[in-house]
Specification:
The complex is a heterodimer of chains A (286) and B (276). Chain A is an alpha/beta fold and 286 residues long. Chain A contains 11 helices and 10 strands. A 6-stranded mixed β-sheet of chain A has the order 6-7-8-3-9-10, with helices on both faces. A 4-stranded antiparallel β-sheet of chain A has the order 2-1-4-5, with helices on one face. In chain A, strand 7, helix 6 and strand 8 form a beta-alpha-beta unit. In chain A, helix 3 packs across helix 4 and helix 3 runs parallel beside helix 5. Chain A is globular, with a radius of gyration of 21 Å. Chain A starts with a strand and ends with a helix. Chain B is an alpha/beta fold and 276 residues long. Helices cover 40% and strands 21% of the residues of chain B. Chain B is globular, with a radius of gyration of 20 Å. Chain B starts with a strand and ends with a helix. The chains are: A alpha/beta (286), B alpha/beta (276). Chains A and B meet through helix 6, helix 10 and helix 11 of A and helix 6, helix 10 and helix 11 of B.
């Protein structure tokens, strides 16, 4: 079942001098089993929107249907507690939220909080470790001894261990070194392809949007500016640039080459396709 | 050319167990644009903190603009070196933009009657003039980073260190800060030392230091550093898109020289097209 958002609004501090409308009527369908990117400038409402997906925020108007829950204004937190198990939300820089003295305890905190026994929680932790590329030797170590990238894996394991159907990630690769970022994205791809998880990704990295995502949503001043399939999106690079998005390297190279008289069809969207298209044209001149 | 920074045999560790900086030596020419790259935990930020005297080295020496960094000289030397950190929220001190920019000046005992003018000039340089009386909560991350840069410009340093200063910003914020850095470097000949994971920025710098597990693994021009792709990959790093493309073309028997920026790739292809 996909996620359906209808006329959703969120106003912070309503009826006070600090009133701020962060979301101003969002209509969206986020497809099930796909990887969806949410992009937009700082302050466009991305984080506010994703915090609705697991009931951390309740809309001030409109509705949200997700994993069998119908979310509408004035719902109580206790009504959505179970939703938090089904939708895992990973904040930006999740490593700052680690707090337990061992990695095992930190990852087991979620299941125990939902009433799982100590023993079962331990089993779950052991099962989840390989998914994030860590082994049992880490269990007894303090999470604070780890590098930034490893800490982030532990924090993500703490969400995955609840076996959510939907995984929402707020800029999961920010600050990671290039290979670390690649491995992190690979992890989400595996969860999507092998375990069938729906993945929602807030990101600024257009390379990731192009290489890993199926669907893209642009938010702008609390409204949906654009929504489409990723391929279709990158077929219109001039438009992308005109709305202030820096397209991925491949798309920028395509644009530059087109300006210099190379004939490159809009359908060319991978490195191999571009290499092939360009070699054909330099060869033709021989 | 004289060196803005000279580091000799520097060692540092946070605790007994692990050496974070392991006998590092390097020098950075005055007026250059140098990037430092390395995996998470390689010691990049530690070096930055050592250079501005926030951390004290276990052994070895640091010279800033020819003068040795010691407990006695550290406050004096901070007039020469400014730093912009990663998180825009962690470095805002003032209650307004103007207060924040003035903070460094107060620290350096600039007479109040001169402050106003310096603050306004510095804000103008980063395009924040209309925000002088704005509170930090009403600024975006990119704007806060620009204020941080203005605060540094106010004390007119010779060297500015950027420690992943754009990694928490959106693409527009990032582009505007990068443009700001480039201008400072070109127009005011400020020595820039930028710690980054952005390989496109590295490709445009003049000199690259590659850190690995607390040691300098490689240093040299971006072209030289990127020519060791395998080694970079082993160190959790990568090469820019332009070079990936260039290598693919080379595999097919076209292009014989590495291109590391998109402009270079385009130029090479145009030449090839017209030659044929």
């Amino acid at each position: 079942m996909s996620i359906e958002i209808k006329e959703l609004e969120h106003t912070y501090n309503a009826n006070t001098p600090f009133q701020h409308a962060a979301l101003k009527g969002i209509d969206l369908e986020i497809p099930e089993g796909k990887v969806t990117a949410i992009i937009g400038q700082t302050g466009s409402g991305k984080s506010t929107l994703v915090q609705h997906l697991n009931g951390l925020l309740i809309p001030t108007a409109g509705t949200l249907d997700i994993c069998g829950f119908h979310i509408q204004p004035l719902l109580k937190i206790k009504d959505v507690k179970e939703l938090r198990r089904k939708v895992g939300l990973v904040f930006q820089f999740p490593e700052y939220q680690l707090f337990e003295e061992t990695i095992e305890k930190d990852i087991a905190f979620g299941p125990k909080n939902f009433g799982t026994s100590e023993e079962d929680a331990r089993k779950l932790v052991n099962e989840i470790l390989p998914y994030v590329g860590l082994d049992e030797s880490y269990l007894e170590r303090s999470p604070f001894e780890l590098s930034g990238g490893q800490k982030r894996r532990v924090a993500i394991a703490g969400i995955l261990v609840l076996n959510p159907d939907v995984l929402v990630l707020d800029e999961p690769t920010a600050g990671l070194d290039p290979q670390g970022a690649k491995e992190m994205m690979q992890l989400f791809m595996n969860l999507n392809q092998k375990a069938g998880k729906t993945v929602v990704l807030v990101t600024h990295d257009m390379e990731h949007v192009m290489n890993y995502c199926d669907h893209v949503i642009i938010l702008d001043h609390g409204k949906v500016k654009h929504e489409s399939n990723v391929k279709t999106f990158f077929m219109h690079p001039e438009w992308i640039t005109s709305i202030g998005i820096n397209p991925p390297g491949l798309i920028r190279l395509k644009l530059q080459l087109q300006k210099k008289g190379f004939d490159i069809p809009t359908s060319v969207l991978t490195m191999d396709e571009l290499v092939e298209c360009v070699t054909r044209q330099v060869k033709d001149h021989a | 050319m004289t060196n803005a920074i000279e580091v000799k045999d520097l060692c540092f560790s946070y605790d007994e167990k692990k050496t974070t900086i392991d006998h590092i030596s390097f020098s950075i020419p005055q007026g250059s644009y140098t990037t430092i790259i390395g995996h998470n935990g390689s010691g990049k930020s530690t070096i930055a903190k050592l250079l501005i005297g926030l951390l004290r080295a276990k052994s070895g020496s640091i010279r800033i603009m020819g003068q040795e960094l010691t407990e006695e000289t550290v406050y004096d030397l901070r007039k020469h070196v400014g730093i912009v950190f990663q998180n825009p929220d962690n470095q805002f001190i003032g209650s307004t933009v103007a207060d924040d920019i003035a903070f460094g000046l107060e620290n350096h005992c600039v007479p109040p009657e001169q402050m106003q003018e310096i603050v306004e000039k510095s804000a103008a340089k980063v395009g924040m003039t209309e925000y002088l009386n704005t509170e930090p909560t009403n600024l975006s991350g990119g704007q806060k980073q620009r204020v941080a840069i203005a605060g540094i410009l106010a004390i007119t340093p010779d060297i500015i260190i950027f420690d992943e200063s754009t990694s928490m910003l959106d693409p527009q914020g990032k582009a505007s800060i990068n443009e700001q850095i480039r201008q400072l470097h070109e127009e005011r000949k400020i020595t820039v030392l930028s710690i980054t994971h952005d390989m496109e920025e590295v490709a445009q710098s003049e000199y690259v230091l590659v850190l690995n597990k607390g040691k300098i693994e490689m240093n040299g021009s971006p072209k030289y550093v990127f020519s060791n792709h395998g080694k970079l990959r082993d160190m959790q790093l990568d090469i820019p898109f332009a070079l990936q493309f260039s290598r693919k073309m080379q595999e097919k028997g076209f292009l014989s020289i590495d291109a590391i920026t998109l402009d270079e790739v385009v130029n090479q292809l145009c030449q090839l097209k017209s030659k044929n």
